[in-house]
């Protein structure tokens, strides 16, 4: 029997029937039960460290990549279960049609914006919390919830970088976040979350006691899930100053910060200078691709400024291509002069 449609759009909603047995999970994922159990039993050791970054505060951010069998199972979980959830509009991280821009747009015109960050978010989403989500939000049986938890956690936390992890991060506050959102909406506040970045804004000026109430309410929700705020990243922006959410300015409209725009323009100038000094190797070409992506981002927010830089990059790209073709012709002439066929490597190659 098909479940009724969700009448409360502020609550994450799974529109499919709950999975009550491993046999039903086998059918849902298209993976034999014996393989699911075997993959789950070795899941904790089935990751490699993909990257490690030292953050500004000195802490580490580790991202992981699952080995093929586990990754295959996680993709099935994502595609056939997690992607089917109807996510509330206030969640904007790593979901189709959502973005930092959409997150910031919700707060355009605010008189004040309060920003809170969650400390060490992914590793502190415990297996107990994940299992409670499979049981409570999805309505799956104990056995199914246990197996899905084994397949999606590592060392009693959610591994950042795994294909299921961003979805679990979006759903981690499923039991408390809708109530917080409704509470704020009744008071005239706007609430959004971009993964571990929480923003609350208001189009009117608010009192200090209201600010304290907002912060206390957010912290209470975090504590209910066993995670902690990153207090050094607590931010309050008010009208008359630059108001920023998810690193985007949104006083009147959403735009890139001036320092980011300057940095993009500088990166184009640096590429032009390197090419002018005769550098036309693969490293420069690779850097050109990176800078082109950044210019594309700038163009999406500031079209006139982006268009000018795109013209300069087009000219630079042609210069690099012409130089590469000229080098190739020179090498061919050299080969011909010393009697080397094109199939043989020249001594200078």
TrEMBL record:
Pfam families: RVT_1
Swiss-Prot/TrEMBL keywords: Antiviral defense, Magnesium, Metal-binding, Nucleotidyltransferase, RNA-directed DNA polymerase, Transferase
Coiled-coil ranges from the UniProt annotation: none
InterPro entries in the cross-refs: DNA/RNA_pol_sf, Reverse_transcriptase_msDNA, RT_dom
Domain of life according to the entry: Bacteria
Domain Reverse transcriptase, residue spans: 56-237
GO molecular function: RNA-directed DNA polymerase activity
Family of the protein in this entry: Belongs to the bacterial reverse transcriptase family.
Name under which the protein is recorded: Reverse transcriptase family protein
The organism of origin for this protein: Massilia phyllostachyos
């Amino acid at each position: 029997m098909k479940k009724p449609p969700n009448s409360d759009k502020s609550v994450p909603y799974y529109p499919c029937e709950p999975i009550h047995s491993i046999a039903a999970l086998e059918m849902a994922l298209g993976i034999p039960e014996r393989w699911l159990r075997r993959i789950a039993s070795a899941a904790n050791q089935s990751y490699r460290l993909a990257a490690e970054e030292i953050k500004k505060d000195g802490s580490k951010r580790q991202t992981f990549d699952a080995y093929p069998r586990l990754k295959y199972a996680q993709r099935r979980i994502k595609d056939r279960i997690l992607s089917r959830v109807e996510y509330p509009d206030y969640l904007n991280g790593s979901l189709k049609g959502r973005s930092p821009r959409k997150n910031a747009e919700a707060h355009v015109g605010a008189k004040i914006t309060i920003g809170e960050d969650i400390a060490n978010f992914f590793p502190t989403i415990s297996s107990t919390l994940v299992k409670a989500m499979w049981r409570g939000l999805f309505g799956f049986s104990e056995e199914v919830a246990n197996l899905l938890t084994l397949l999606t956690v590592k060392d009693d936390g959610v591994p950042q970088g795994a294909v299921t992890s961003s979805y679990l991060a979006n759903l981690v506050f499923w039991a408390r976040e809708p109530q917080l959102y409704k509470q704020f909406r009744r008071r005239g506040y706007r609430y959004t979350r971009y993964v571990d970045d929480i923003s609350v804004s208001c189009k009117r000026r608010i009192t200090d006691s209201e600010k304290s109430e907002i912060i206390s309410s957010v912290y209470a929700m975090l504590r209910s899930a066993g995670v902690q705020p990153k207090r050094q990243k607590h931010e309050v922006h008010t009208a008359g100053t630059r108001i920023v959410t998810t690193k985007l300015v949104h006083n009147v409209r959403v735009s890139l910060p001036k320092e980011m725009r300057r940095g993009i323009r500088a990166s184009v100038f640096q590429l032009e200078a390197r090419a002018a000094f005769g550098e036309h190797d693969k490293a420069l070409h690779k850097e050109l691709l990176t800078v082109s992506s950044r210019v594309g981002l700038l163009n999406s927010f500031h079209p006139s400024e982006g268009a000018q830089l795109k013209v300069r990059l087009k000219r630079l790209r042609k210069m690099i291509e012409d130089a590469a073709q000229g080098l190739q012709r020179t090498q061919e002439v050299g080969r011909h002069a010393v009697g080397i066929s094109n199939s043989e490597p020249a001594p200078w190659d």
